Design the sequence.
């Protein structure tokens, strides 16, 4: 496949189209406006639908409707816009309707800052809305990963009949990089993917020969509702096998940097330079932050590893909770943080690591 | 003997309705069922249910339906219809759902001229949650959150959704009906049928507002509720066709 030079947001949108996305609804918010703009041009070209919603609330509920027909559907937003979508995400997860949501994170809380941040980690991985539901959350550190993860997100969503989040940030969304785009699914394949959802989808079933569909996040019967919760919980447990992380120099590492997304990318560069200085430092970069790659931390030899450095663009730190659960007191954990739209400097990570070797 | 009237197949025969005595939801779902059969769309109809008493209907209707977020029915229906234009999509929403929490979704779907059918059930009060004040509650009418009655100085005035939507260019058909007597029941059925036919013909946004009663939360028995509806509600919400673009076309 030919390599093309693309902006992160546009590459995400194109990857979605190639994975079979045929419905997009969204509302303007910086720094992800290029996704809806791209979709408004691209969707009509592939026989899809683009709707500019009157709000994030309406947009996610349009997705709820479109995705119920079995159509691959996506929305995107940023931080405070994602908060407005939490109601709809809860309905989607409750009714077990597949879709993809992209969060191009910016500073927060509230209106925060339009610059890149990673301040929605806990919201994305632990509580994206009411009712204790979960989504798989994929965290790209390059535009290429954003493409690959967006493409895969639709397949995970359909496999699980559950929303999937791509947790990007303002750097990934606005940076331009060369990428290899995946081959586009043909219109026949896209139609087949939609048709395979027919049994549960809200399509207006032929009642003379098919059972009706009820797409419903609720249940008047508490036993029935509890059963839905139990089935969803089993799904979330099954994701352990899907956990992914980039592991670098762990064989002899005495200090391990833990960082995801754009922080992970900056950390990778810092770790490589520190290795040239002769420091035995490694990297665990979660590519899925839900499921979190606990196994990567279990593999470490804690007789050798002195410390973990949690690096993220959030103050207070948020991934730190998962890192603590992963480390389980087997070594100390330090942090190297920025927040509010301030981007981490590689030298800051390097200084923090050097400090841990002293 | 020839059967000339049977119960609609679009309602489950083996389920006892939980709607209160004197509530008009039962009548409306019967009428909708009959319309679906008469238009022969039972193999492609999808109901997007609002939140409130009407949500009970998910267990009563025999056809595809979904329960969406409170007020979001017009957005969800937009998604269903745009993604699958061959499906006949209608929402069924109460006044709190459509005119309060869902005002933006309702106005915007109407303004886009979405090719959907909206059945708006206006009884001037929140039913499911226990009689709180709605955007359509009459001035002076008591509600559990307006114990001294709706006071315009504090609460403003009842909202007239048909008239508000009539300010927009896109909507195709807006009519207000009631189910307070047999003649109006027939008119309501005809209006709903027209609203569905408009969608089948690709005409765009159609809404039928049905002024109904809520004996339980009005604190009146079903017959007195009818009196209240006729004497008070219909004065505030006069019946009739507010917009019908087909008249301009003919």
Sequence:
């Amino acid at each position: 496949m030919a390599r093309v030079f693309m902006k992160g947001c546009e590459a995400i949108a194109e990857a979605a189209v190639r994975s079979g996305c045929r419905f997009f609804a969204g509302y303007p918010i910086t720094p992800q406006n290029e996704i809806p703009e791209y979709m408004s041009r691209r969707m009509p070209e592939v026989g899809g639908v683009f709707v500019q919603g009157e709000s994030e609330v309406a947009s996610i509920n349009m997705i709820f409707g479109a995705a119920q027909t079995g159509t691959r559907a996506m929305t995107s937003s940023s931080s405070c816009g994602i908060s407005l979508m939490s109601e709809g995400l809860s309905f989607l997860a409750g009714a077990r309707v597949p879709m993809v949501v992209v969060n191009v994170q910016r500073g927060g809380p509230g209106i925060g800052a339009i610059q890149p941040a990673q301040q929605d980690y806990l919201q994305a991985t632990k509580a994206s809305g009411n009712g204790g539901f979960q989504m798989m959350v994929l965290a790209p550190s390059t535009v290429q990963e954003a493409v690959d993860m967006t493409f895969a997100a639709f397949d995970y969503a359909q496999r699980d009949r559950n929303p999937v989040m791509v947790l990007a940030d303002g750097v990934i969304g606005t940076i331009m990089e060369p990428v290899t785009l995946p081959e586009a699914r043909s219109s026949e394949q896209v139609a087949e993917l939609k048709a395979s959802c027919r049994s549960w989808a809200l399509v207006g079933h032929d009642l003379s020969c098919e059972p009706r569909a009820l797409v419903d996040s609720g249940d008047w019967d508490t036993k029935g509702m509890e059963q839905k919760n139990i089935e969803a919980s089993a799904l979330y447990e099954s994701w352990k096998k899907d956990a992914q992380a980039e592991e670098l120099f762990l064989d002899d590492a005495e200090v391990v940097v833990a960082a995801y997304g754009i922080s992970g990318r900056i950390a990778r560069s810092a770790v490589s330079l520190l290795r040239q200085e002769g420091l035995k430092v490694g990297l665990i970069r979660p590519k899925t932050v839900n499921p979190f790659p606990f196994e990567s931390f279990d593999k470490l030899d804690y007789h050798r590893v002195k410390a973990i450095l949690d690096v993220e663009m959030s103050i207070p730190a948020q991934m730190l909770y998962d890192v603590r659960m992963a480390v389980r007191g087997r070594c100390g954990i330090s942090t190297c943080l920025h927040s509010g739209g301030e981007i981490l400097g590689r030298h800051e990570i390097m200084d923090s690591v050097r400090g841990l070797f002293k | 003997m020839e059967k000339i009237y049977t119960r609609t197949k679009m309602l489950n025969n083996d389920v006892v309705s939980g709607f209160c005595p004197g509530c008009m939801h039962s009548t409306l779902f019967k009428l909708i069922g009959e319309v679906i059969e008469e238009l022969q769309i039972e193999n492609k109809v999808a109901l997007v249910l609002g939140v409130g008493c009407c949500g009970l209907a998910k267990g009563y209707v025999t056809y595809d339906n979904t329960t969406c977020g409170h007020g979001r029915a017009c957005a969800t229906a937009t998604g269903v219809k745009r993604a699958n234009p061959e499906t006949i999509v209608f929402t069924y929403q109460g006044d709190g759902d459509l005119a309060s929490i869902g005002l933006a979704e309702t106005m915007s779907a109407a303004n886009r001229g979405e090719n959907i059918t909206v059945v708006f059930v206006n009884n001037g009060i929140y039913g499911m949650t226990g009689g709180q004040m709605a955007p359509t509650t009459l001035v002076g009418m008591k509600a559990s959150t307006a114990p001294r009655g709706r006071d315009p100085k504090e609460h403003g005035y009842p909202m007239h959704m048909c008239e508000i939507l009539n300010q927009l260019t896109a909507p195709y058909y807006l009519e207000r009906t009631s189910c307070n007597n047999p003649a109006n029941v027939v008119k309501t059925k005809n209006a709903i049928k027209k609203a569905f036919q408009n969608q089948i013909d690709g005409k765009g946004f159609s809404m039928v507002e049905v002024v109904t009663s809520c004996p339980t939360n009005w604190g009146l028995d079903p017959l007195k509720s009818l009196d209240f509806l006729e004497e008070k509600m219909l004065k505030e919400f006069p019946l009739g066709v507010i917009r019908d673009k087909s008249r301009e076309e003919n």
About this structure: Chain A is about 40% helix and 20% strand. The longest helix of chain A spans residues 143-160. The mean pLDDT of chain A is 97.
